[in-house]
Specification:
This protein is mainly α. It is built from 2 helices and no strands.
């Protein structure tokens, strides 16, 4: 969660650095932007986690189950 907030903050800072005029965000605007970036990244991370879990379950569970049956 902390890494996601850090990434979101860096994205916002880099996007605002490209602007000619500095735009001061209110706290509400800043929180809304950070929350939207965090939500997008959280969904992406969850999809990656699910893919990794499916791949690893098929690889790792079968040998563990076999070793338990042998004992």
């Amino acid at each position: 969660m902390m890494k996601t907030l850090l990434v979101a903050g860096l994205i916002i800072m880099s996007a605002s650095a490209c602007q000619k005029e500095k735009k001061n965000f209110t706290d509400a605007e800043l929180h809304r932007r950070v929350d939207s970036v965090v939500k997008e990244n959280t969904e992406l991370l969850q999809e990656q986690f699910d893919e990794d879990l499916d791949r690893r379950l098929s690889i790792e569970v079968r040998p563990l189950a076999d070793s338990l049956r042998r004992k």
